[in-house]
Amino acid sequence: MTDAVTTDTVEAGDHACVTFTDAEERLDLVAAFVRDGLRAGQKVVCWTESVRPEALAGQLAERAVRPGAALRRGQLQIAPVDGLLLGKGTGGAARMVDVLAREAEQAGRQGYSGLRVTADMGWATRPLAAADELVAFETAVGDLFADGRLCLICQYDRDRFDAVTLAFAAKAHPKTVAAQVYVDHPLLRVCRQYSPAGVRVAGQLDYRHADVLEQALAESTRLDRHMHVNLSKLDFIDGACAGLIVATATRLPASRRMTITCRRAVALVLDLVGAHAAPRLRVNRVDEQR
């Protein structure tokens, strides 16, 4: 049975998958995976398909990862799947496994304690991709984890893969990586954000879920030195929940701070309940950043 884990518990020897519908949440998990690998002195490789390498580097930088120096010294590599893994044409599972094996061997020769790889599996949905190559890759790659040095996370976009393939992916990976979720239904999602660390809220938030919000904020207060409350996809917030966020920021000691990212309408509500007077609170409006 596949174990559901959070990104901060993934370690050397793990073969895991991320299945996602929210591209921003996927990038958040990838950023945390990259950040933790760099901090641990491991080599990190990102094979990207849906996001250009230079764009992915920018997305990592926005999520509290500093890719520049790691890219220059070779500890971090960001490359497109096509060409490197697939070659000209469709490539194949055997080629992909060989590339992974060489990367793991090279990381050891370079003195890294291990190799972390995250791969966007969207290549398997291309018109020329053979359907059985994905199955062959996920089956054959298991032999590379024997020495406990490789950690691999495969990314599956639920909007691109059919239900049968997603079920196979869940079965093929011993672990499934996901954000810790406090509430998830069509009108509201509250989950932990890992990079930068804090809380992510999307949808519509009112007093009926104040207890859930309070739980998420309390955990971030306990775990994170500086709290990031991502409300960029929040359409509505009432005064009760806005006041709860501001009160949390107000209670922070002088050495800590809270940063909120939100839309203009949400920022207005936060301001009405005293955000402008909280010395350790900073509100960034996403509509002003674009």
UniProtKB/TrEMBL annotation:
Residues 199-270 form the STAS domain. PROSITE patterns: STAS. It holds the Pfam family MEDS. InterPro entries: MEDS_domain (IPR025847), STAS_dom (IPR002645), STAS_dom_sf (IPR036513). This is STAS domain-containing protein. It comes from Phytohabitans aurantiacus.
